[in-house]
Each structure stands twice: as structure tokens, then as C-alpha cells.
Design goal:
mainly alpha
């Protein structure tokens, strides 16, 4: 659909795929993503090679991490390492780790957050829930690999 919209225009693509009842804004977004992906592949390929875009990159969903991508990843790694040693993790510990990372990296404001939100219990719960969800997916994946290899 995105390629069709790029080659023939959004209005024609909407007419062509009218049975799918796609919104115009969705079609415009897909067209832009397709053209961005096409441009990136065009720059990375040698001249004369065929350019094939089979899938579009998925957009990240949800809020941006309050600490920023880099510090949030560091926080998650710290929590996983502490859990591996058998340390209990509470919301107070997660808040303390977050504040410690901010102090260590001399951050006075939060990346990607315009207001002065404090690291609190609710923030710690959301970090912990996100991390538990990722760990559960990893455990399922490892279990699937183990059961298929035997």
C-alpha cells in the first residue's frame, strides 16, 4: 500500500484500497515511512542494485523513558544484575538507583520531559513493570529454544 501511495499518490491509493477502509492520515504516514526507508536503502546500496522495501520499521509506542534512552537502559541493567545476585528490589531501590544515575551523569533535568517530574513510586512501578514484561518475553523465548533443540 505504501509503495502504491508513493508511486500513484495518496488519493489514488485510497481509491484503490477502499475496501480496507484505510484513513488518509494512515496512508500518508505509511507513504512517508516508505519513502524514508527507500531513501536510506538507496544511500546504502551500490549503484545499479535493486532496492526492495519489504517491511516498514515499527514505530515505538508509549511514552519516552523519563531518564532518557541511555540512562533507562543502564537502570534496567543494574536492576537485572541485582536480581541475579538475589537482591530484593523495591520501588524505593528503583527510585534510589534512578536518582543515583542522574547524579552520576550530572543531569539536572530529564531528557525528553519538559516538566520537572520527580522520580517517585509510580515511576518506579512503571519501570519495574516494563522490565518484568521484557524478562517474561525473554524467558518464553529461551524456553522455546530449549524445547525445540531437544
Amino acid at each position: 500500500m505504501a509503495r502504491y501511495a508513493s508511486e500513484n499518490g495518496v488519493p489514488n491509493a485510497l481509491k484503490h484500497f477502499k475496501e480496507l477502509k484505510v484513513k488518509e492520515t494512515s496512508m500518508q504516514d505509511w507513504k512517508k515511512a516508505y519513502e524514508r526507508e527507500l531513501k536510506g536503502k538507496r544511500e546504502s546500496l551500490a549503484p545499479g542494485e535493486a532496492i526492495v522495501v519489504s517491511t516498514l520499521p515499527a514505530r515505538k509506542r508509549g511514552r519516552h523513558p523519563l531518564l532518557g534512552e541511555k540512562l533507562d537502559k543502564s537502570l534496567q541493567e543494574l536492576i537485572v544484575a541485582m536480581r541475579a545476585r538475589g537482591s530484593p528490589i523495591t520501588t524505593a531501590i528503583v527510585v534510589g538507583l534512578g536518582r543515583g544515575l542522574l547524579l552520576k551523569n550530572k543531569k539536572t533535568s530529564f531528557d525528553g520531559c519538559s516538566d520537572s517530574t520527580e522520580l517517585g513510586k509510580e515511576w518506579a512501578k512503571s519501570v519495574w513493570a516494563l522490565l518484568n514484561g521484557e524478562l517474561a518475553l525473554l524467558q518464553k523465548f529461551c524456553l522455546m529454544i530449549l524445547t525445540n533443540s531437544t
